[in-house]
Design a protein that fits this description.
The chain has about 220 residues and is of the alpha/beta class. The protein is about 30% helix and about 25% strand. The protein is built from eight helices and nine strands. Strand 1 and strand 2 form a beta hairpin. The two termini are about 30 Å apart. It binds S-adenosylmethionine. S-adenosylmethionine binds next to helix 4 and helix 8.
Length: about 220
Amino acid sequence: MRRITGKQVVDLGPTEFADLRAQYAGAVLDVGTGDGKHPLHLARAHPDRLVIGLDAAKDNLRKAATKASANPKKGGLANLIYLWAPAEQLPAGLTGITELHVLMPWGSLLRGVLGSDPAMLAGLAAACGPDAAFLITLNLHAWRPPVPEVGEHPEPTPESAVEDLGPALAAAGWRLDAAAYLGADEIAALATSWTRRLNSSRDQLDVLALTGVINPSG
Ligand SMILES: C[S@@+](CC[C@H](N)C(=O)[O-])C[C@H]1O[C@@H](n2cnc3c(N)ncnc32)[C@H](O)[C@@H]1O
């Protein structure tokens, strides 16, 4: 797998990843991490978890990756790595994920989490262990007016999302349990740059959080 450590891209082999993964009780994968601020926040808050930020674009990862790979005495975080890969082609050996986040997706990632790319959803599920929790936060302005990636899906609401999006997600092993609008404090708590950027350019930022379980055992 292609690990970003700053300006450098280094190869992280499946065995090396497995050794790293084995040091932590849980592993959170943030897909479409952008500039990686959300995983930075998670890794600081949860030193007992391995946190992985993954994005198809590598350049925005550099700053956070430089911080993460610094010496722990200088603020580096041993439990945080950044990977450069598209969600459609996850690196071989990326397994053991116990929690998956997809925050403010756009492009093919948005299309995928809306159920239009079953192979992407199945690939992400394959990286997860049983009963992995997922959090997807949708920027509802993608429907106002609709961007091409939302396809035929009407804007989801807390009432409609489980019925409209649930079946396609379920077919790939994702059980959608709940959908809820996020308040300003909850959006801020995600510590992502996109929510901050969008919030400053709009009076109100409407975000719908989808939560559920991947590979449910029950
Ligand atoms: C609107 S930004 C959100 C970034 C971050 N999650 C946040 O909330 O600040 C969407 C991100 O998804 C990434 N992305 C889009 N399609 C992707 C795909 N197929 N695989 C991985 N990343 C993807 C983009 O490169 C971009 O960084």
